[in-house]
Design a protein that fits this description.
Layout lengths: L2 H26 L12 H32 L5 E2 L7 H25 L1 H11 L16 H6 L2 H8 E2 L2 H10 L24 H7 L17 H6 L24 H5 L4 H14 L1
Parallel strand pairs: 1-2
Helix pairs in contact: 1-2, 2-6, 3-4
The protein binds zinc ion (2 copies).
The site of one zinc ion has 4 residues, from loops.
GO cellular component, one term: membrane
Subcellular location: Endomembrane system
Pfam families: FA_hydroxylase (PF04116)
């Protein structure tokens, strides 16, 4: 493995995201949903960098497998246009398909205990804000690469320009995580908003298992998993004080935390 390429990949994955998150954290101050400065922001910023290292390593490990599977299947069923008038509809088709796959993967993350064991790290933030966006368990991008992205690769022969446009649009994912009083009112189903996604992260049991959409909430509307935000509805977020990592090692071993905590307690009582 070429270490300088790897470091470049990590920087490429983390620095622009960290920059946009910082900008979003400043913008949140204009109209915050929760007044106080998010206690988790510093932790999340450092974790975002650690996560980028894990993401780059996993991509390295799974890329060969994914590419050879796609090539073995003939390199994608539907060729997407890379220029001309067919480019916009090609991009729209790719975007809608990927967003539907993201929606289904996210539902599975809440449905199956072993996936929730990882995804719960994202929900453990006691004060959701822009920096929560990349707070995911390090194994999850690898799982997505060999499921939904593999499927997209088998379905489409995707030119780099579409992959680039999709990656750029990925920055929008920071917006719904912002600690911001912003919803889209009657147009809630058109685009994910800070209010719509706050309900997905809500600490209140009546809000559990709804609003899974990544970009387009109409998937929730179609599959009946939507909860339309009330005009002034900005609930607190998180899973409770015992369900949040106390340090980075705990976040990196998140699905095993109960085991880890029991061992730490035993160590304390012995010492
Ligand atoms: Zn979720
Ligand atoms: Zn989220």
């Amino acid at each position: 493995m070429d270490l300088s390429n790897f470091a470049e990949d990590v920087a490429y994955k983390s620095l622009p995201v960290l920059g946009v998150i910082l900008l979003a954290l400043a913008l949140e101050r204009l109209r915050p949903a929760e007044r106080q400065w998010p206690s988790s922001a510093a932790f999340n910023m450092v974790y975002t960098f650690i996560y980028a290292i894990g993401f780059a390593a996993l991509q390295l490990a799974t890329a060969a497998l994914t590419v050879s599977a796609v090539n073995a299947a003939g390199g994608g069923l539907i060729p997407l246009a890379e220029r001309g008038w067919l480019l916009p509809p090609s991009f729209l088709l790719y975007l809608l398909t990927l967003d539907l796959l993201e929606y289904l993967f996210h539902r599975a993350q809440h449905r199956y205990a072993w996936l929730w064991a990882m995804h719960s790290l994202h929900h453990s933030d006691p004060a959701m804000n822009a920096s929560t966006t990349e707070r995911h368990f390090w194994l999850e991008p690898g799982l997505k690469l060999v499921t939904i992205y593999l499927l997209a690769g088998l379905l489409f022969k995707t030119p780099p320009v579409i992959l680039g446009m999709y990656a750029l649009l990925g920055f929008y994912n920071i917006v719904p995580h912002m600690n911001l009083r912003l919803g889209f009112g009657r147009c809630w189903f058109l685009l994910n908003s800070p209010q719509y996604h706050r309900i997905h992260h809500s600490a209140r049991p009546e809000h559990y298992n709804c609003n899974y959409a990544a970009l387009f909430p109409f998937w929730d509307r179609i599959f009946g998993t939507h909860r339309i935000p009330q005009p002034d509805e900005y609930p607190p977020t998180g899973l409770g004080p015992d369900e949040t990592p106390n340090h980075f090692a705990e976040a990196l071993l998140w699905p095993l935390r109960r085991l880890w905590r029991r061992r730490a307690k035993q160590g304390q009582s012995v010492g």
